[in-house]
Amino acid sequence: MRAVKFIVTLLIILSVSPLAFAQPPLPDIPGGTIVASGFTGPQGVLVDPDGNVWVVDSGTGGDEVVQVPGENGEMTELTMGPTARIVQVAPDGTQTDAAVLPSILFTETGESSGGARLALLDGVLYATSGGWESDGSTDPPSLMATIVRVEGGEAVQVADMWAYEKTNNPDGLILESHPYGMAAGPDGWLWVADAGANDLLRVNPATGEIVLVTAFDGLPGAFPNPRRNDAVEADPVPTGVAFDDAGNAYVSLLSGAPFIPGSTKVLMVTPEGAISDFATGLTMLTDLTRGPDGQLYAIQFGLFSEQGPTPNSGAIVRVKEGGASEVVIGDLPFPTGIAFDGDGNAYVTVNGVGAPGSGAVVRFDALTAMEGQPLPAMAG
Question: I need a labelling partner for 139 at 20 to 30 A (CA). Which of 52, 98, 101, 159 fits?
Answer without folding.
Answer: 98
